[in-house]
Amino acid sequence: MANDPISQFQIQKIFPIEVGGMDFSFTNSSLFMVLTVAATSAFLIFSTSGRGLVPSRVQSVSEMMYEFIAGTLRDAAGTDGMRFFPLVFSLFMFVLVANLFGMFPYFFTITSHIIVTFALAMLVILTVIFYGFMRHGMSFLKLFIPSGVPAALIPLVTMIEVISFLSRPISLSVRLFANMLAGHITLKVFSGFVVSLGAMGAVGIFGAVLPLAMTVALTALEFLVAFLQAYVFAVLTCMYLNDAIHPSH
Amino acid sequence: MAGETQSTTEGIEVPPAEHGVGFPPFDATTFASQLLWLAITFGVFYWIMKNVAMPRIAGILEDRKDRIAGDLSEANRLKDETDAAIAAYEQALAEARNKAHSIAHDTRAKLKADHEARREKAEAELNEKLQAAETQIAGIKTEALSQIGEIAGDTTSALVEQLIGKAPTKTDLTKALKSALN
């Protein structure tokens, strides 16, 4: 059980709650959601409590995150897109910290569950759809009819555009989920090798050096992936929001 | 390796007994709870970000921008002041130079005029003296000439008396003298 690479994704109830036959228990996943929110909010608020004109080290981290996402959003969606800045910033920080929390041994990775990443992706897509129709009305549908396409090709191109639009929430959520899941499984498998080979005596200990080195390298890679996937999620969110703001491309 | 595979298989076999679905992320019975808690936590997180954390960071960045802009404008103001002071100094210098020029010019003109006046005065005096001298000379000359006539008359009368033994008449003498002198 301890060596099982899947058990780390197991949801365990901490406080069982059941409403109308539905299971709304406070689980280890819920616990880490709360921890992610609490830690991120606390960091952002306490690091900026000095309100230093010349930022302290932690304050400059918060400022860097803020300006990084602000720059990404402005580049992708223009100044009009800045109305979605709180959403994009929250998504980025939430996913980033959730991913990084997952890097602690024995911590639960909330983004390794498809339902969580899918819910976040749906939040983005529904925001795009609602805002797109609210702002542009029916002309939001121009999104699916690229300008400058020969009339004969319009049905085909529109179909492709619709399919690509519908696949967005799936690709957005599966990308994050699969990256986190696969990374954690790989880490667990290689570190499991270290333990099982180590238990085999002198030859085994010698042989365990290789998976150990692999585990160290993978840990570094996973930190990169944790950041990169949060960034990719934020960038794609910005690009989809750009469609809602400027539907004709 | 064999042990590993076995334990993995065992691990996968355990969950079905608990939840009915093998792979935890695809276990639909946990979805409701995860969605609810994600909605609650992310909702709270969004609210905190939007209303507390982000305005705070934005405020800090704004303050810094304002401070830098303020400092820059202050520097610009000081620079403008310095430029104005330099311009005023240059102007004062130019004015002083012009004044010096005009003073020098005036002095030169005044001296020239003064000099001219004195020269004219001296020339006038000299002319006057020359005039007086000329008058005097003319007087002396006239006098001398009149005396010459008399002397010549006397001499001529004496000469003629010596030559012919008889003194010429006054009228003849005067006539002869007049033609000789002229």
UniProtKB/TrEMBL annotation, chain A:
Any one cellular-component term (Gene Ontology): proton-transporting ATP synthase complex
Residues passing through the membrane, by range: 31-54, 84-104, 110-131, 143-167, 187-213, 220-242
Membrane topology: Multi-pass membrane protein
Compartment(s) where it occurs, according to its Swiss-Prot or TrEMBL record: Cell membrane; Membrane
Keywords: ATP synthesis, Cell membrane, CF(0), Hydrogen ion transport, Ion transport, Membrane, Transmembrane, Transmembrane helix, Transport
MF-aspect GO terms: proton-transporting ATP synthase activity, rotational mechanism
Keyword Ion transport appears in the UniProt entry: yes
Function: Key component of the proton channel; it plays a direct role in the translocation of protons across the membrane.
Protein family per UniProt: Belongs to the ATPase A chain family.
HAMAP family, A to Z: ATP_synth_a_bact (MF_01393)
Domain of life (superkingdom): Bacteria
Coiled coil segments of this chain: none
Protein known as: ATP synthase subunit a
Gene3D superfamilies from the UniProt entry: ATP synthase, F0 complex, subunit A
UniProtKB/TrEMBL annotation, chain B:
Topological type in the membrane: Single-pass membrane protein
Keywords: ATP synthesis, Cell membrane, CF(0), Coiled coil, Hydrogen ion transport, Ion transport, Membrane, Transmembrane, Transmembrane helix, Transport
Coiled coil region boundaries: 72-143
Compartments where located: Cell inner membrane; Cell membrane
UniProt main location, coarse: membrane
Pfam families: ATP-synt_B
Role of this protein: Component of the F(0) channel, it forms part of the peripheral stalk, linking F(1) to F(0). The b'-subunit is a diverged and duplicated form of b found in plants and photosynthetic bacteria.
PANTHER family xrefs: ATP SYNTHASE SUBUNIT B, ATP SYNTHASE SUBUNIT B', CHLOROPLASTIC
Subunit structure of this chain's protein: F-type ATPases have 2 components, F(1) - the catalytic core - and F(0) - the membrane proton channel. F(1) has five subunits: alpha(3), beta(3), gamma(1), delta(1), epsilon(1). F(0) has three main subunits: a(1), b(2) and c(10-14). The alpha and beta chains form an alternating ring which encloses part of the gamma chain. F(1) is attached to F(0) by a central stalk formed by the gamma and epsilon chains, while a peripheral stalk is formed by the delta and b chains.
Name used for this protein in its record: ATP synthase subunit b
UniProt source species: Roseibium album
